Amino acid sequence: MRKLKTVASLLLAVVITGLSAITPAFADYDPGFDVDAEAVYFINLDTGKVIYEKDADKKVYPASTTKIMTALLALENIPDLDTPQIELKLYIQNALSGTGASLAGILRGETFTPRELLYAALLPSGNEAAMMLGDYVGDGSLDYFAEMMNEKAAELGAVNTHFVNASGMHDDDHYTTAYDMYLITMAALENETFREIVSTNYYYAGEDQNGNPLHWNTTNFLISPGSTYYYPYATGVKTGTTDEAGRCLVSTAEKDGYHYLMVMMGAPQYDSNGEKLEENMVFKQTIELYDWAFSSFSNKTLIEKDVGVGEVPLKLARGGKDYLLIKSGEVFTDLLPNEIEASSITMELDLPAVVNAPIKEGDQVGTIRLMLAGEEIGSVPAVAAEDVDASLIATLIDQFKRLFRSFLAKFIVVFVILSIIAYITITVLRGRNKNRYYRRRG
């Protein structure tokens, strides 16, 4: 539960970080090995920094990672997850018959609560469970539910996504991108129930109508102890596999206070000869990328708070003081490759040409931009390092000058306007007088 709460707080932190830091893309940073998946989007949740991506805007098929969106809409539209009883409808059963789609073992005549169906959809990736949720939220129409999915995707900024079903069964018009799936997953992770479910490796749902136990195990082997691909730092989320989509995995992981989210889409299932690969490449390469990130990047403090950084010209100060000391207003820490030392960071000061007294210590007067190889990686406020009182006489003189300049400017404008009006008036009168003169002589 501690990890779940940590992830929730990080969702807000990513947004807040974006307000104070401009994060360079380390998306082209070389992990030292080839990634065979079609598309990858790998982001550090603490900083919002993308440390690796591959064709993140490429159109791909999401397979059962679709169920992340299905769960998100169910959680948003079903106030009570434990009271409604939802039954498997015949048309859903018929639609899945003979498809070979993954199922949770739900039989006709059985009813389940929305919470149970969420576990059934997200752990064993039960297609019937996802469709039951879609049917319920869509008021009996899976087509309407698909419209809701697309509206939600657009709302989240997932503009390169289009859904046609709640389960992720293949359709050429059912597609997304790695980046869009990141946006959808981030929205889902804001919900505590979703986080709890996708971090669960096993759920017992009681017995079916024949007395057989319903054991729902996650298909995300990263969080399954005893699995070949168990990864002790993984904390969720969802798999997806079809022949057309390949192997897909949206996952999160945490180690030593570092938190990551990775979307890997289209990892291969077969080799060049069409033989099925012995290894599950989506798990294998996800683990490799996580290991690389945890060993290759670390937080570095690039500037402490209250560090003196220079001075700026000062006017109107008591005692004739003509400069103001400037210091950093905040500490700034960023995720950087281990080989980059904090000493490699340079500072650029954005300060006004002059500052007028009075001013209080801590008042922001500019910005300190932190630069790495000519690229801005963040910024902190540049603030006054001291209190400076204003000189009464100097202030009065300055105000008089301002007033005079303002008056003079207004006078000039009025004078010009009046001059133009006078010129026009005189010109018109002269014209009339000439006309009268020629009429008399004629």
UniProtKB/TrEMBL annotation:
Pathway, per record: Cell wall biogenesis; peptidoglycan biosynthesis
EC numbers for this chain: 3.4.16.4
Keywords (A to Z) from UniProt: Carboxypeptidase, Cell shape, Cell wall biogenesis/degradation, Hydrolase, Membrane, Peptidoglycan synthesis, Protease, Signal, Transmembrane, Transmembrane helix
Reaction catalysis annotation: Preferential cleavage: (Ac)2-L-Lys-D-Ala-|-D-Ala. Also transpeptidation of peptidyl-alanyl moieties that are N-acyl substituents of D-alanine
Known function: Removes C-terminal D-alanyl residues from sugar-peptide cell wall precursors.
Organism superkingdom: Bacteria
Membrane-spanning residues: 407-429
Name listed for the protein in its UniProt record: serine-type D-Ala-D-Ala carboxypeptidase
Keyword hit for Transmembrane helix: yes
Natural source organism: Hydrogenoanaerobacterium saccharovorans
